C-alpha cells in the first residue's frame, strides 16, 4: 500500500510518499518539505495570509518532488491523504483542495487527516508501537496528554489551560531578542547557561489532574528580564537554561500525572510516546527518558524531523485509516478546530 500525504496546516509545505511493507511496518519513500520560516521571521511569528500564499506557490512543486523522489506515478498510489485541520484555515484549504483535486483526477480515495492524529500515530510509523500508549504532544499550538487506544480512538487526559509549550518557548525567545522560531534558539543559547541561576515557577506541579499551565512561567521570565535590565550574554544564557529546566520539570511532573490517569482509565500503556515540534529538544528528551526508565516504560521519540510538521506523518495516517476502510468524501470541509477527543471539553482559549 502506498499513500501520498500533504501537510499545509501551519508554516510548512510538505508532501511525502509512504509505503506499508507486508509486515505492516512503514517505509518513507520520500519526505519533501519547504519551511516558510524566512517569510515569517520578520514578523516574529506565523502570519496566516503570508502562509496561505506561500503554500499556494509551493505545493505543486513539493508534491511533484515527493513523487519523483519516491519514484512512483499517481497510478501506483492507493490513496491521497491531506491534513484537513486543525490549523490556519487558509493553509488547510490549499493542502486539502490539492488532495481533493489529485484524488478526483486519479480516481483514488481521499483521506482527510487530522493533523493531531498524524502526530499521535507517527510512533507506529517509526517504531511499530502497539496500542494503547500514552502520548505527550507538545508543539507550537498544542500541549496535551492523550491515551491513544486505537486509530480514531483517543481520550484526552490533560491539556494546557493557557499557552502551548512551543508557544512559551517562542514568546520567551521573542522577549529575550532571539529570532523566530524560538524553541531551537532557546535550546541553543541554554547550552552555555546555568539552569539553576534563576528559580522560576513550575506551574501545576503536584496537581492530581494532568493539565498544564505555561503563562505564569513565561511571565516570570519576563519579570526576571525586566529586573536585570540590560542583559549580558551570560544573563540570557542562564535565563534560557533556567526556563528550559522549569519546562522539563513541568513536563515530567504532568506526564507522571497523565500516566496515573492512564492506568486508572485505560490500563497499562505499551509506551510513552512524545511527539510535536518541542520533542526535538534534547534536554526535554532526556528528562522524559529518565521518567520512562523510572516508570518501567518504553519511551518512543520519533527522530526530530518526524516530530516537527511533515508530510510522512500525514501519509502514514492515510495508510492506517485506508486499511480500516476509513476514507472521506470530496465534500469534506477544512476544519480550523478539530479536537482529537471529541468528548473532551473545550478549554479556555481553545488551543487544545
Ligand atoms: O509541531 P510543530 O512543528 O508545529 C506545530 O505547532 O504544529 O512545532 C513547532 C513548535 C514551535 O513553537 C517551536 O519553537 C517548537 O516547536 N520547537 C522547539 C524546538 N524545536 C521546535 N521547542 C523547544 N526546543 C526545540 N529544539
Ligand atoms: Zn504539528
Q: How would you portray this structure in words?
A:
The protein has eleven helices and ten strands. With 352 residues, the protein is an alpha/beta fold. The protein folds into two domains: 2-122 and 308-348, Nucleotidyltransferase, domain 5; 129-305, 2-Layer Sandwich (Nucleotidyltransferase, domain 5), CATH 3.30.420. The strands form two sheets. It has a five-stranded mixed beta sheet, sandwiched between helices. Strands 8-7-6-9-10 form a five-stranded mixed beta sheet. The mean pLDDT is 94. The protein binds 5'-O-[(R)-(carboxyoxy)(hydroxy)phosphoryl]adenosine and zinc ion.
Task: Give the distance, in angstroms, between the N- and C-terminal Cα atoms.
Answer: 33 Å
Q: Helix amount, in percent?
A: 40-55%
Bound molecules: 5'-O-[(R)-(carboxyoxy)(hydroxy)phosphoryl]adenosine, zinc ion
The poorly predicted ranges are none
Can you tell me the overall shape?
A: globular
Order of helices and strands: EEEHHEHEHEEEHHHHEHEHH
Classify the beta-strand content into a percent band: 15-25%
CATH architecture of the largest domain: 2-Layer Sandwich
Q: Taking strands numbered 1, 2, ... along the chain, how are they ordered across the largest sheet?
A: 3-2-1-4-5
Number of domains: 2
DSSP summary, beta strand count: 10
CATH class of the largest domain: Alpha Beta
Task: Find the CATH topology of the largest domain.
Answer: Nucleotidyltransferase, domain 5
